[in-house]
Amino acid sequence: MKIKILPSASQDLIDGYWFYEKQSPGLGSYFKDTLFSDIDSLVFFGGILQIFYDKYHR
């Protein structure tokens, strides 16, 4: 699975980093590390959920 971050989303992430960094030094880095961890999990686990067909669930 490939993850693509759009330019507009990229700027939101940068803004989020600085928002948290201003709250407390180091918090922006925690935000960034957590974000990258979640993206890595999405790459690893994305697509392993069951496929549903129409209204039928397994």
Largest sheet: none
Shape: elongated
Query: SS-based structural class?
Result: mainly alpha
Any idea what the radius of gyration is?
16 Å
Could you explain how this protein is built, in words?
The chain is mostly helical and 58 residues long. The protein has one domain (1-58). It has two helices and no strands. It has helices at 7-23, 27-45. Helix 1 crosses helix 2. The protein is elongated. The two termini are 23 Å apart. The mean pLDDT is 85.
What key attributes describe this structure?
58 residues; mainly alpha; 2 helices
Secondary structure blueprint with pairings:
Elements (H helix, E strand, L loop, with lengths): L6 H17 L3 H19 L13
Helix pairs in contact: 1-2
Give a quick summary of the entry:
The protein has two helices and no strands.
